[in-house]
Write a structure and sequence with these properties.
Blueprint lengths: L1 E2 L17 E8 L6 H22 L1 H9 L3 E7 L2 H13 L3 E6 L11 E9 H18 L5 H10 L4
Helix pairs in contact: 1-2, 4-5
Catalytic activity: an N-acyl-L-alpha-aminoacyl-tRNA + H2O = an N-acyl-L-amino acid + a tRNA + H(+)
Organism: Lentinula detonsa
Pfam family, one: PTH2
Length: 157
């Protein structure tokens, strides 16, 4: 089941005919989900973002569909990290929806499993670059290569 702060306004995700749009799916690795479980949870996150965009910003959704419905899978290591990423994405007015598992199979009910984030490519790149800086600053590693890895993943280089 999707969860989010519904008061975040994503109607301002303006797009033009040349804007490329992407979706990022952030998967928690600490839950040790099977490949099939990850696929199902990523599908839930994609659908949650899709439904949100359909009702609040159909122009953005159409552009995402026109530009190939690109999705990028990334990982995070805890629920705390996932919630931090969600709050930061929402602060940039990106569509950000996390999924809570129903608890019928491998994962405890209510566990947040995947975060879906949708936005214009340039904003997604900015968001990921800032996360890369934040992560590497915490562990004492930072380098210009982080930006280029992010840009390459987003087809910006």
């Amino acid at each position: 089941m999707p969860t989010s702060s519904e008061d975040v306004d994503i109607s301002g995700l303006d797009v033009g005919p040349l804007d490329e749009c992407k979706m990022v799916l952030v998967v928690r690795t600490d839950l040790n989900m099977s490949t099939g479980k990850i696929a199902a949870q990523c599908s839930h996150a994609t659908l949650a973002c899709y439904k949100t965009l359909l009702s609040s910003n159909p122009a953005f959704l159409r552009q995402w569909e026109r530009t190939g419905q690109t999705k990028i899978a990334l990982k995070c290591y805890s629920e705390e990290e996932l919630l931090t990423l969600q709050a930061q994405a929402q602060s940039l007015n990106l569509c950000a929806r996390s999924i809570q598992d129903a608890g019928r199979t491998q994962i405890a009910a209510g566990s947040r499993t995947v975060l879906g984030i949708a936005g214009k490519c340039i904003w997604i790149c900015y968001f990921l670059y800032m996360q890369s800086l934040s992560f590497h600053t915490r562990v004492g590693q930072i380098g210009e290569q982080d930006y280029w890895n992010t840009a390459t993943a987003l087809n910006l280089s």
